[in-house]
Design brief:
The protein is about 80% helix and about 0% strand. The chain has about 80 residues and is an all-alpha fold.
Length: about 80
């Protein structure tokens, strides 16, 4: 009785491992196939435009942003001192 139980356990283990192996193999094949299909049918990315010179207003905005960020950091550090 002990031998037949051991054989059934080994058969069940082999069946389970085989099923998982087949499933993972099919999953890898399906993923690879879908990647190739998407790469084939995806639109070509647009070419980036020539670099434009930044407007002077952007520099003023950057300065304002820097002031706001530094003020926020200063207030945070004041409130959370140890």
């Amino acid at each position: 009785m002990q031998d037949s139980l051991m054989q059934e356990g080994l058969m069940l283990m082999a069946f389970g491992m085989g099923f998982v192996f087949v499933f993972l193999t099919v999953l890898v094949i399906a993923t690879t196939g879908m990647s190739k299909l998407v790469a084939r049918w995806s639109p070509v990315p647009a070419k980036p435009e020539a670099a434009r010179t930044p407007a002077p207003a952007a520099a003023a905005q950057d300065d304002d942003l820097m002031v706001v960020i530094s003020t926020a950091v200063h207030r945070y550090r004041q409130r959370h001192r140890r």
